[in-house]
Write a structure and sequence with these properties.
alpha+beta, 6-stranded mixed β-sheet
Length: 1239
């Protein structure tokens, strides 16, 4: 998408959108004849804004409007009898209710000659001039040029169209205006049909025929088909028309604009349902060309974010001098004729000024008091020079003092704008149709749209980012590989673990992913039709949300931990006894010790001399051994010089060894865990890193057949080096499989190895059988892990023939993983016989006919079935190749495909292939086994299968990727398991097994097929999701069956593809017999029918939608949180399914719902994270005492504990000594040592 298109899609807004101050029909209906009040300035016109000074309503109230407001907007006796405007007649007399008897909804006593109750009449009288104050009748249009001979008048009126019951509508209509050589439009006069709803009108010029039907109204949003040149405009409070200067005109005809688009902006905040409008313009064209073409240009700021409750907020934008220097005419620049400033309801004042060489030249628009409902056009008596190198600076001031919400740029008057508009000459129509277009050089933050396209500017650095790299596609290409390898999954989008790691890395290192550049990039890429650009935006959005979500979880965990630390358990708190109690315990311990010591002294002095020889015989061993008396021997410790016998020492040594082993064990366990957790090299690259052709490997006989590996591989002398040429290149035999395979010796050595089954199909040799080769044109394999490459063919234009066999032709087995054939009922929407990257889809061909994968020889159909081709079957087919290139080899090519065989004799039954399984997978890392399942819904088979016998299953195969370990597919009937269809006890991705059934298995109406998949993520540290890559996962079962119904397989729901997404079964959504499909409390069918989108469309439009989608504003966030809490469809499997469906939708309302759900999820997490961080800061303040206080308390308690423990130990020892002394016999103490007791 060109930036011009982007800028216009976002910014082609002139006078903004809906008004709060509009003449609400509800107020007009609250007074008699409120919709029939004559204008005090022109009796032929009505004054819809009966309570306002402006004819159409809005802006300041007149005296009657003030009185009506004072009465609570009710027609009361007091209001009726009052003379609000002071002209001598009561309000009731002026409005046709002189008796003051009218009630709301009734008919007034008089409906003619209804005069204005709020403006004194006659307006021109001296009395009324004083009473009406500053009020003046609207200026009358006066343009003598339109009466000159030859001037052509043309009416551009909208066909009478109903006004939708919504606040803001942009309605357009395209016209062919002129096919003459050239003529000038010299005047434009607005024709207002419904002033109660019309806010502004714009005329856009088109150099080419618009891409819409002519003379037919259509909702156009803020863009106007493919017409981008703003020619003229009208808005409330502006002049009654535009009469151009005598020397300028808007160019029309073959050398100008042949077509125009009229755009009307309707404002219907009360959502009235019975309004119509046919407003437009009367245009005047002169055949006499004037000296200069004229145009209108716009400058200003498209990025606004105004905080609430602010008395004044300033925003600005300055056009870049480089733009005018390169794009303006070099022989005098532009001449400005008039200018006007545009903001919305929060705008208070502003200023637009002209700058040259860094100096202010003059004010262009000095808007000291801005009123949204009374725009002022500043006409210049003499045209003002706008020269090459000049800058136009637009300053806007706002007040959000009376609102509690943030205000952003947007269409609604509840949002804001900051733009200046100028009519100028000379206009260059050719330049206005190219990019950059000087007529539309607005800014987005610090970024000037036009500078990104200037040829003279090679780098455009904003906040450290070269914004031109986005425009050139360099930034997209820079990160495309990362997105493909780290992020991209088939059902975009999900931010996986590795994608989040990539996002955090680039967010920290890439200036373009921060500040104004990232907002500009997301704005640009969200609108892009380029898939890689859209993917970049999608993953940046999704990973921003997940990043906030993960950080919020971490913050919550930190809060829980801080709460635990800051609130000690009661028992711990109570154990910290008061200082006085602790001192009492210590004192008591001292006293107890003194008493025991005194008792011991008394006992010793009273002892008699006696022998203690019997101490040992009483079994009391007192052993005091010190560690320094121990020696180490042979890795164990033996105690030497210690008391006790050898057995005691041995027991101590044994205990020590046990203790040492216990101490060593955690280290060994940790070591084993470290080894187990070591990450293996990536699949497919280990050999490149570790395998080498060595002398040892060369001379070894790996397969045991009597020849060395070197002899078998053509290097018998073992001299080959990598990159060189082997000494022999012919007769190269296999070094890893013993040959001849059929010999008795090799049969033992090769174990379970068997040669692949050879394809054998006698039917293909029957007379009349036609063979057709569907081979991919030789194509380079991209250097990326996973590629799906397709090629379409015209296969058959005969009445009907059956395909009876499909034989794979493998050109590059090193890269090819599988082949599939899809049948096409209609011609594919891609060029025939031309390779194209197709992802998992295959153009517009949806019927899977046949497939081949590693380990499968080919498919020869039963004699009674065939795949239908020809005029009564498939005329076209698409062959799909899945390439797996994890090493990202750059010089690989492939031309694989199928040889197909067609029989002119149709067989009894058509056959097809159906698929079941689970499309929502999210496998946590480091799990020994994970189970996922999907069961087809019995209601699907009950409604869609043939009622006279269902399907007959011929064979089945299961499909997972590298993490799949085992699985099972089973057939269920009436809640009971009938039998296993695919008992896959050991699953190997590289050797798929086809389970062929000797007798076809009945799959009857009401039956269910259950697919169970088991995975192991024990060796990966990342989450694994559903996706195309082998590093992602799948869970599918495939079955060939008959009879196949070609018509049903091309309608929806299609029984051939009834897979599940979580608990949601795709096919049940479309079943006519199922009125409601409730999943997790959500009726998922409301999404399919559009009811869910319509249910929340009003909320999205009123609370969220902004012209440069998307941003989650305050009110949008409040809406999101409300529906998230109350709507079951916005949680669990339903919301994932909804986002999957809506992100792909081409419907703007559907896509908008997905966009705001995504963006508000991110902002919700971000806001909660900020709250959590604030809570953490508060908890840290409360739960972190001064370090010295904490440490002193801790050391004091520890010292008290040590003192108490030592006194208790003293008490125990003293008691033991007393016991020993009292039991001593009279003997000599000297004999103690002789008994082996060492003290």
């Amino acid at each position: 998408m060109r930036p011009l298109t982007l800028a216009l899609a976002i910014l082609l807004v002139v006078v903004a959108t809906s008004r709060l101050g509009t003449a609400y029909p509800t107020y007009a209906n609250k007074v008699p004849n409120g919709n029939g009040v004559q204008s005090p300035c022109n009796a032929d016109e009505l004054w819809p804004g009966v309570g306002h000074l402006h004819q159409a309503g809005g802006g300041p109230r007149n005296p009657f409007g003030l009185d009506l407001k004072a009465e609570g907007f009710k027609w009361t006796q007091q209001l009726c009898r009052k003379d609000s405007d002071g002209d001598g007649r009561t309000n009731g007399e002026e409005l046709g209710d002189p008796e003051c008897v009218w009630q709301e909804g009734g008919k007034p006593s008089r409906t003619d000659n209804v005069t204005h109750p709020g403006i004194c009449e006659p307006v021109g009288s001296e009395k009324c001039a004083k009473l009406n104050g500053e009020f003046k009748c609207p200026e009358q249009f006066n343009c003598s040029a339109i009466h000159q001979p030859g001037v052509r008048q043309m009416s551009l009126r909208l066909n009478r169209t109903e006004v939708p019951p919504k606040e803001t509508t942009y309605m357009c209509q395209a016209y062919e205006v002129s096919n003459r050589t050239k003529e000038h439009m010299i005047a434009a006069v607005p024709v207002i049909d419904n002033p109660a709803v019309l806010h502004h009108m714009i005329i856009y010029g088109c150099t080419q025929k618009p891409n819409v039907a002519l003379d037919s109204p259509f909702e156009c949003g803020m863009s106007a088909a493919n017409c981008f040149n703003l020619i003229d405009l009208w808005g409330l409070g502006m002049r009654p028309g535009n009469c151009y200067r005598d020397d300028v005109g808007a160019p029309f005809g073959l050398e100008g604009y042949q077509y125009v688009v009229l755009q009307l902006h309707w404002n219907n905040p009360a959502e009235v349902t019975n309004w119509f409008d046919a407003s437009g313009f009367e245009l005047y064209f002169s055949p006499t060309l004037r000296p200069f073409d004229t145009g209108v240009m716009m400058y200003g700021q498209a990025k606004l974010d105004l905080a609430p409750r602010q008395k004044e907020i300033y925003r600005t934008a300055t056009s870049d001098s480089r733009t005018s220097k390169e794009l303006l005419p070099q022989d005098g620049g532009y001449k400005l004729l008039w200018g006007t400033l545009h903001m919305h309801l929060y705008g208070t004042r502003g200023q637009v000024s002209l700058w040259r060489n860094g100096q202010k030249v003059r004010d262009l628009i000095p808007m000291h008091n801005f009123d949204y409902d009374t725009p002022i056009v500043f006409e210049y008596q003499q045209p003002i020079d706008y020269l090459p190198g000049d800058e136009i600076r637009t300053d806007c001031y706002y007040s959000t003092a009376k609102t509690n919400r943030s205000v952003y740029w947007g269409e609604s008057t509840q949002e804001e704008m900051c733009y200046s508009f100028f009519q100028y000459f000379p206009h260059n129509r050719t330049k206005a149709q190219s990019w950059p277009n000087v007529d539309l050089c607005t800014s987005f933050g610090k970024i000037d749209y036009c500078v990104t396209g200037l040829q003279s500017v090679k780098e455009y650095i904003v906040d450290g980012c070269d914004v031109k790299t986005l425009q050139s596609g360099q930034l997209i290409q820079k990160y495309k590989k990362d997105i493909d390898s780290e992020c991209r999954h088939a059902y975009q989008y999900r931010c996986s673990d590795q994608c989040l790691a990539w996002y955090r890395s680039v967010k920290a290192s890439e200036p373009c992913f921060n500040g104004d550049p990232i907002d500009y990039i997301l704005l640009y890429t969200r609108y892009s039709s380029y898939e890689d650009a859209k993917a970049l935006a999608g993953y940046l959005d999704l990973c921003a949300e997940r990043d906030q979500r993960d950080k919020l979880q971490e913050a919550k965990a930190e809060i829980d931990e801080l709460n635990k630390r800051s609130t000690p358990a009661p028992e711990v708190h109570n154990s910290l006894l008061s200082h006085d109690i602790r001192l009492l315990i210590v004192s008591a311990s001292y006293l107890a010790g003194l008493l025991l010591a005194a008792l011991l002294v008394l006992v010793i002095f009273r002892m008699k001399r006696s022998s203690v020889a019997s101490i040992e015989s009483k079994g009391i061993h007192i052993v005091f051994c010190t560690l320094k008396n121990a020696t180490a021997h042979s890795g164990t410790r033996h105690l030497a010089g210690c008391c006790g016998d050898q057995s005691t020492r041995n027991r101590l040594s044994h205990l020590y060894q046990q203790s040492a082993q216990r101490k060593r064990r955690p280290e060994s366990v940790q070591r084993r865990r470290a080894v187990a957790g070591r990450r293996a090299p990536p699949s497919g690259r280990r050999g490149a890193e570790e395998s080498k052709w060595t002398q040892q490997l060369c001379r070894k006989d790996s397969d045991g057949d009597g020849r060395t590996n070197g002899e078998e591989l053509g290097d018998p002398e073992c001299v080959w080096q990598e990159g060189g040429k082997p000494s022999r290149t012919d007769n190269v035999t296999h070094p890893g499989i013993c040959e001849p395979v059929g010999s008795e010796k090799c049969a033992k050595l090769n174990g379970e190895f068997k040669c692949p089954e050879q394809f054998n199909c006698s039917a293909i040799h029957q007379s009349g059988v036609r063979q057709m080769s569907l081979r991919l044109n030789r194509t380079a394999v991209p250097p990326k892990e996973t590629t799906y490459m397709c090629q379409a063919y015209e296969v058959s234009n005969r009445t009907k023939e059956h395909m009876i066999a499909a034989v794979p032709v493998i050109d590059n087995p090193a890269v090819l993983h599988h082949l599939a054939i899809f049948g096409c009922k209609e011609k594919p929407n891609v060029p025939l016989e031309t390779p194209f990257e197709c992802g998992m889809s295959a153009a517009n061909c949806f019927s899977l006919i046949d497939l081949w994968s590693l380990g499968m020889p080919g498919n020869c159909y039963r004699d009674d079935v065939g795949a239908p081709f020809g005029l009564e079957g498939y005329q076209y087919a698409v062959v799909q190749l899945h390439w797996n290139n994890p090493a990202e080899v750059t010089n690989w090519f492939d031309a694989s495909g199928f040889e197909l065989y067609f029989s002119p004799t149709p067989r009894q039954y058509d056959t097809g292939v159906m698929m079941y399984g689970q499309a929502k997978l999210d496998l946590a890392p480091r799990q020994k086994e994970i189970y996922r399942t999907a069961t087809s819904d019995s209601r699907t088979s009950k409604e869609l299968l043939p009622q006279d016998g269902g399907y007959k299953l011929l064979w089945g195969i299961m499909h997972m990727h590298l993490y799949g370990t085992r699985g099972q597919v089973s057939l269920w009937r009436n809640g009971q398991k009938v039998r296993d269809l695919i008992p896959m006890h050991n699953y190997d991705y590289n050797t798929p097994i086809v389970f062929e059934y000797q007798q076809p298995i009945d799959y009857l109406p009401g039956d269910e097929i259950r697919t169970d998949c088991y995975y192991s993520t024990a060796k990966t540290n990342r989450s694994v999701y559903w996706g195309e890559s082998t590093q992602e996962e799948m869970c599918y079962s495939f079955f060939q069956y008959f009879p196949h119904n070609l018509t049903k397989s091309h309608s929806w729901p299609n029984i051939d593809a009834c897979s599940s997404f979580g608990k949601v079964d795709y096919c049940v959504m479309g079943l006519k017999s199922v009125e409601k499909y409730i999943v997790d409390g959500c009726d998922v069918k409301t999404l399919q029918s559009g009811q869910l989108i319509q249910k929340y469309k009003k909320g999205v439009d009123s609370e969220c939608r902004h012209a440069y989608q998307y941003r989650c504003s305050d009110q949008c966030l409040a809406w999101y949180r409300s529906v998230k809490a109350s709507e079951p469809c916005f949680n669990g499997d339903p919301i994932d399914y909804i986002l999957l469906y809506t992100r792909y939708s081409s419907n703007g309302d559907t896509r908008a719902l997905a966009g705001y759900l995504d963006l508000c999820a991110e902002r919700d997490q971000r806001d909660k994270l900020q709250e959590a961080k604030a809570e953490i800061d508060e908890l840290n303040k409360r739960s972190t005492p001064a370090p010295e206080v904490h440490n002193s308390l801790l050391s004091h308690d520890i010292r008290l504990l040590i003192v108490s423990a030592s006194y208790l130990a003293g008490l125990l020892l003293a008691a033991l000594l007393v016991l020993v002394i009292f039991r001593m016999k009279r003997s000599s103490v000297a004999s103690i040592e002789s008994k082996g007791i060492h003290m």
